[in-house]
Amino acid sequence: MIVLTNGSCWFQFTRVWIPDPDEVWRAAEISRDYKEGESVLHLQLEDETDNPLPFLRNPDILVGENDLTALSYLHEPAVLHNLRVRFLESNHIYTYCGIVLVAINPYEQLQIYGEEVINAYSGQNMGDMDPHIFAVAEEAYKQMARYNERNQSIIVSGESGAGKTVSAKYAMRFFATVGGSANDTSVEEKVLASSPIMEAIGNAKTTRNDNSSRFGKYIQIGFSRHYHIIGANMRTYLLEKSRVVFQVINNQLISGWN
User: Fold this and answer.
1) Does 69 belong to an annotated binding site?
2) Is the domain of 145 the same as that of 213?
3) 37 belongs to an annotated ligand binding site
4) 204 assigned binding-site residue
5) Is residue 91 pLDDT above 80, yes or no?
6) Domain of 119: which CATH number?
7) Residue 88 class from Cβ within 10 Å (0-12 exposed, 13-18 middle, 19+ buried)?
8) Any binding-site annotation on 195?
9) Does 148 lie in the same domain as 47?
10) The Myosin motor domain covers which part of the protein (predicted)?
11) Average pLDDT, stretch 38-46?
């Protein structure tokens, strides 16, 4: 049971999420109606134990939705549960949240980035197919080449080891495939080949990521009037030297590069 201080109204059998120190969030039901003015809310966990404070659970029919904005209740436990169900039960690492693509790093190579997959997403509207980094890349390419003819940006963000560098490479692979030139493929090949060179110079091993980028990268890809890749520019920013000069291994301070 928990103590309420805000005068909320809750009803028996309402399905909720409650915080848990081990599993982060656990499923529960309200075991007794709560009426305004009462100071105690009774909860029942699925394993028959009691524990505190609730978040409303989504109906089962919505669990596993490929767009988080379709959920009735959008909060941390609902988001984590939906991502977990999609990842563990359906092996989907991508989920939309409106125009944002949420990606889970599977820490293994998946066979979902081949040329046949690129061709399947090329020309499709975002939302017509399953969430994918190629769908985001196609939307940017389509807005640039087919509709507005304006510069487009894709922001790749996340914590260390989330897969930002790899996601950016897959987006570049998409552009190199759909925007390649039939007469000269050397340009797009050079664009793709530039990433390992930059990684060799600017990446370092950390406790959370064996190949962690130690700087932000701004990659600018140029297209011709016929929307073929004609060149690329890569700039680095926010280089934190204090994070690449030293590395702690087995309690010993090892000097790195400066």
Assistant:
1) no
2) yes
3) no
4) no
5) yes
6) 3.40.850.10
7) exposed
8) no
9) no
10) 63-258
11) 70
